[in-house]
């Protein structure tokens, strides 16, 4: 009988629901926002990977011939693309090349 009385005399633990509930709600909100941000990021990354990288098949020869005949400067943007399979579309070299037909000079400017 003594043991039963000791159990009933122990003070009951008071649950602090007023502290625990807001913490759970804040945790769920942070988790939801993080998952949504990851979903949006992956969607944008897929679009960039699939649609942004298109190789140039040709340059308009008529426009180039016209500029050469009129002795106008021709500017060409040279992009070096990183060859790693995991980094698709990353440019590791950006150079603007200017051809000057009048003086038969070429200038190249590297853009960091």
Question: Can you put this structure into words, describing what you see?
Answer:
With 112 residues, the chain is of the alpha+beta class. The protein has 2 domains: 18-52; 59-112, no CATH class. 47% of the residues lie in helices and 21% in strands. The longest helix has 36 residues, at 17-52. It is rod-shaped. The mean pLDDT is 80.
Write down the overall mean pLDDT: 80
Quaternary structure = single chain
| CA distance, first residue to last residue | 85 Å
How many E strands? 3
> Strands of the largest sheet, in order across it?
1-2-3
Shape estimate = rod-shaped
CA-based gyration radius? 33 Å
Encode the helix/strand succession as letters: HHHEEE
Q: Biggest sheet, open or closed, and with what strands and sense?
A: 3 strands, antiparallel
Q: Low-confidence runs (pLDDT<50, min 5 residues)? A: none
Number of spatially distinct domains: 2
Helix content: 40-55%
What is the structural class?
alpha+beta
